[in-house]
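Reply to dn_fold:

You asked what the input looked like. This is it:
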Amino acid sequence: MPVLDRFLTVMFEKQARAVLMETDNQVFIDVGHTRHPVTKESLPSDKILTLIREIMPVGMHPQLVGDDGRTTFGYVINGNRVDIEFVRKGALLTAELTPAKSATKRKPKTKKKEAPPEPADEESPQPIEITVSDSQAEANLRSLLEQLAQTRSSDLHFHAGSQAFYRKHGELKPLAGSHPLTDSDIEQMVLATIPPERRAEYEQFSSVDYGYEITGVARFRIHALRDLNGVSAIIRVVPHEIQTVDELGLTPQVQKLCYLKDGLILVTGPRGSGKSTTLGAMVDLINRSRTDHILTVEDPIEFVHVNKSCVVTQREVPTHSPSFFSAVRAALREDADVVFISDMQEPAVAEAAIDLAARGHLVLGAMHTTTVVNTVDRLIASVPPDRQAQSRMVLSEVLRGIVCQVLLRKIGGGLVPAREILITTDAVSKLILEGKTFQLPSTLRTQRKTGMQGLNEALIELVEQRAIEPEEAYRRSMHKASMETALEQRGIRISP
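and this is what came back:
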């Protein structure tokens, strides 16, 4: 439930004029032209933005980060309509939430003597007992997350009984100056940031994924869990800026996949391999170059895509749909041209995505598989054995391409991707249909003119470009014997 619902409920119960918010001030309810505080603490601008974003239509969210101006929209709670006026003037934000004229209930006429108005000589308005989670724990976390984004680190780790760790350029290091965190320290930070509607999931399953945003800094994907030592949290940075396909070095052949009208395109790889960044760039390319309806199904929403040449609808599981499967099936009724699915691990979701592609949609999806062969085999195995022949036939018709990627430590610092790329040709479709996926690696090596590429070939290119060390290429290779042979043929020996 949005936090503001509690204030609005009180507003209607007390027939108040408005709920009022202003940067670095308490939240007030205006009753009889007397302001009653409903929070003990003052709210900074970022907290006001978070509260407003919870009740604002998703399509209007970009207006919250624009220049000075005024934004108005409507909201309904318990059948009552509310008018919201949000104003930005420099660093000052104000918001006024008032009952819509049509929702204002007229008092019935009565001959009884009206009750006297509230006394105006009170020393101070009496607070109404409502609290907002704006604890010191959240302030401490925000400070750490701002540093994380500014230093271009990718992850922050909290584990009970240990100091905080951060990941940069693929390496996990202790956060300088941090003290061992208690179970209570981490729990407070989680409870201060978790959306109200996700708390039940956290309590029931002892783990939850959710998004958190610091306006003007970055979005963050937070995974909170309970383990042997208590509570842990792993936080991933999702930059506001979406990198382009050119900046990420996606080949022209991969970029061309984004212009197709139907079919299935997959980006796969292990955790932390940059799948979300690559898919975000591909969705952005479609958004800039086509005139279609893009639907995303994510948990949580990471990159926020504003409408460019396309109309974009972003749905979060379980906030906007109870499951990935139900959201993907619903896409059939939502006039979507392009559907992005951030997690296709569940067999039912994979099968629904393939069906969606077969019905004429362009589907982009992410999986945690590590090779092209493993990806194709996993998709076919997502259906019962008696239907796998049919699954191979459908997949051979709808699959357009697979990009499997890993991130490697770059010489001189930073990370660089290596990608195994499959572009579906007639020969590839035939191998999938006949169940000969074991022959796909040789196809990748011999069909480079079509844009295909094996992982070993990509790794060797990076070694020859002096982008990565030979040892790093060997470590990340899936076929180490052939990698060692290929390096030796180039006069490169792996250090023991």
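The chain has three domains: 4-101, 136-239, 252-453.
Hope that clears it up.
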